[in-house]
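Example record used in the benchmark description.
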Amino acid sequence: MPVRSTIEPFSFANALEDRKQPGIFSGYWQRALAIFQRSLNGLISSRNTGITSQIATGTAVAHGMAAKPTFVLLAAQDGTVSNYWADTITATTFTVHFTGAGNHSFGWSAET
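Model output (structure tokens):
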């Protein structure tokens, strides 16, 4: 003979969910999560990009970010320079170096 259970079926409804629509966050929690996400985006990931004018090797470039970037990517804007890098990354600038003579312009992207 089968045993009948008097236990209610499991429900995912909890304090975080709208009880009228189980599985959907209530308006309060949606707003709270949006604020939290904006805060994290500002702290965890920030990006800025730019193009330098014609610069000599060893030139400091202002990145305009609120914090020191984790890394800087460079892209030469002309085909004559082949070995280039960024170093001395600080809270306000990074320094562009390249081999060879002359002045060159670079596209850059900095990210925290």
